[in-house]
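User: Hey, my collaborator sent me this sequence without any context and asked if I could get a structure. I don't really work with proteins. Can you help?
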Amino acid sequence: KMVVSAVAAQLFVVFLFLARTEAIPNLAEGRWLDAAAASAGARCLDGSSQFYAFRPATGSINTTKYYIHIQGGAWCTSLEDCHGRSQSRLGSSNRQYGMNETVDLAGVEGCNNSRWCGVLSVPNATLNPLAWDWNFVFVYYCDGGSFTGNNESTAAYKGADLYFRGFRNLNAVLDDLIATRGIAQADTVIVGGDSAGGLATWIHTDHIAQRLPQVKTVRGLPDSGFFLDYGTWRNGIAWVYAQMNSTAGLNQACVADHLRSGGAVSDCIFAQHTAPYCETPMFAMQGRFDSYQTGAILKSSDPSKVNPYGQELTSLVVSSLQLSTNSKHAAFVDSCHHHCGYWQGCLGQPIDGVYGEQALMLWLDNVTDQRLWLQNVSYPCSSCCADGSCAL
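Assistant: No problem. I've predicted the 3D structure and written it out in structure-token form, which is a compact way to encode the shape of the chain:
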């Protein structure tokens, strides 16, 4: 079994700090999927074509390995909300929002390298020893529904037609990767995403694995996507399910089970309900006291409310992935009050002597029986967070 010492962990911090003090160019080829818009109706909220960026593997050793990152950015939960979103980078692929034939992902708004675009996205061996030279796919998020929508109809609102086609958008990206990027011949594919993209990772990783039947190893890496089905916040996500006609875009095992039992299929849009059905091994990176959830869902910073919420979230992650029974899944769960990205070096603290990406590598290489890295500390905990100054 591999053991990572505290000294090694501290050296890892130093290396990451030095590497992160300057932005690392992260150039990728951008592509609009115009043919899929015409043939399959795959469109962003405003009707523009789905867009994604691709950076090929550098060198020959890892040309058969791919990391797919699904962009996050919350959801739109009313026609008014979706209309406003359609006039932004999260609802349109128009050039005015930064989409081009060549994209520097280090400069994408809201991205800042691995802070929001995936811990495995940066082409630097010190920052990203696992996947720095892999093929990298960045799936832009422009549908407002975590890529679940499959609504043939459009909604007319304030003189605009709004499209709810996220699941078609995801399939259009997969079709293009299979046809032009060689992903069907890969030996390893990791699917990740942050925030709403993390939720998409919970929902879609099994579907992506099914689209790639010849790929030996497919794994899921959801970052901060385990949003609780809680209070009135669930109403907005339930609106997404209904308005966007999301049934086809959810985990189909979850859907089938809920149909058999008479349960609400809309539950399957929430991670806590869909995670138990995930067949693909998943490695969850999740904060117990996720700052988005305490603000938008719990709507409180009161420790007497935040701590029970965090305990419930932790319990659901552990139970839904069956982590106490040495399952195929694993999780890195910290007590820092943050949302996305604080998992390594200056962005996070080690748990059981390792940082998030190190724990991921141990799990991927199957050199540890550990399935849960848990920073089980009460809120608030300032020592549970690193300052993040070298990356923000």
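In plain terms: The CA atoms of residues 109 and 214 lie 35 Å apart. You can pass these tokens on to your collaborator as they are.
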